[in-house]
Write a structure and sequence with these properties.
membrane, mainly alpha, UCP032178, DUF445 domain-containing protein, transmembrane, transmembrane helix, 2 domains
């Protein structure tokens, strides 16, 4: 009976020593949190291992995350996985459905994201962009001849229309001189002609008679305007003037119209176009509705595929720019020792208990062996 009690005692003592030793060793990984001094000397093993090596631990964790966890290859494999793509498409479609359900107008959305008075802002930006574009375009066009600015098709059409323009002018002049107003104008011109010739003109006018002269001149003018040669001559004159005009630099057109007048016209056109457009008052759902099927089935998958491919091609650069190792190191360095202890224990608490139990088991076995040796000796 004494022998059994002796062996049990030795096993209990050995198990207690092994368990307490392992438990103390685990505790010394974290504690004490700060150095302990006695008589001005820091006691050994203070602070604990992790508090003492926290900076080194933070740096190694950062390297481990970059080199072994969040590697470019791992991120690329995740992006290329079919399940990830399907989930991303499903999430994007759900997000679009939420926007459609809200019935929010474009103006409300812009105001919500911090853009006050979006219509006025669009007008201002459009005018600014228009001024910049106009000036850039005119810098290139001003030195060029007008004929070099307009396409050849436009010039050919203009030359074809010159004959029509000549006929139109001749027809309008014919209508005018056939009218009573035109006849009176001819009479007035004849009077002015004779009055400018002094006494000889007055005598000639009295001899011929003004009314009879008008009746003779008017048919000749009408005959002249109806003659095909007159119209051909007029067309040739207009074509010559057109060719002269197209030789001028394009800056002459701007100078003739006025740069400021052109800019004001463009500004009014853009502002009126924006103000007449009711897109800001329409709901996002109404704007998307005509393209809903195409958006869901084509645009969203295509956009996500393009984004995935771009990220995959740039993943090394992205990881390098993010400097994940520095982020992890900085975050870990800001953790308190208590938080580090809680984080590690939350992951390894069960394993640490098993180490304690294993120490107790080994201690008990060693105690049993010591008891047997003691009895044998």
């Amino acid at each position: 009976m004494g022998t059994i009690f002796y062996l049990l005692f030795m096993i209990a003592v050995g198990a207690m020593i092994g368990g307490v030793t392992n438990s103390l060793a685990i505790k010394m990984l974290f504690r004490p949190y700060h150095p302990v001094y006695m008589f001005g000397k820091r006691l050994p093993f203070t602070p604990g291992l992790i508090p003492k090596r926290r900076e080194e631990l933070a740096e190694q964790l950062g390297k481990m995350v970059v080199e072994h966890l969040l590697t470019p290859e791992g991120i690329r494999r995740k992006l290329m996985a079919r399940e990830w793509m399907d989930g991303a498409v499903k999430w994007a479609r759900h997000l679009v459905e939420m926007w459609l359900f809200r019935r929010q107008t474009v103006q409300e959305l812009l105001v919500r994201v911090g853009i006050e008075q979006p219509k006025e802002l669009v007008c201002a930006k459009a005018v600014q962009w228009l001024d910049k574009t106009y000036e850039q375009w005119m810098e290139q066009m001003r030195p060029k001849a007008i004929r070099d600015v307009f396409p050849d098709e436009v010039q050919m059409k203009m030359e074809e229309r010159i004959g029509e323009l000549a006929n139109y002018i001749a027809d309008r002049a014919l209508d005018y001189f056939q009218s009573e107003e035109g006849k009176q104008r001819i009479a007035k011109m004849i009077d002015e002609f004779f009055s400018g010739r002094g006494m000889f003109g007055n005598m000639l006018q009295m001899f011929l008679g003004n009314v009879n002269l008008v009746d003779k001149v008017q048919p000749e003018i009408i005959k002249f305007l109806r003659h095909s040669g007159t119209r051909e001559l007029l067309a040739k004159l207009l074509l010559n003037e057109w060719n002269k005009l197209t030789c001028y630099p394009f800056a002459a057109v701007e100078e003739l119209i006025g740069k400021e007048r052109i800019r004001q016209f463009l500004h009014r056109f853009v502002i009126n176009a924006v103000e007449r457009n009711d897109v800001f008052e329409k709901s996002i759902a109404d704007l998307i509705a005509p393209y809903r099927g195409q958006l869901m089935d084509e645009w969203i998958p295509r956009a996500l595929e393009a984004g995935r491919q771009w990220i995959s091609d740039q993943v090394e650069t992205i990881v390098e720019r993010l400097q994940l190792a520095d982020i992890v190191r900085s975050e870990v360095e800001t953790f308190s020792v208590e938080r580090l202890e809680e984080m590690i224990l939350s992951i390894s608490r069960r394993e640490f208990k098993m180490i304690t139990y294993l120490g107790a088991l080994l201690g008990g076995i060693i105690g049993a062996i010591q008891g047997i040796i003691g009895l044998w000796l």
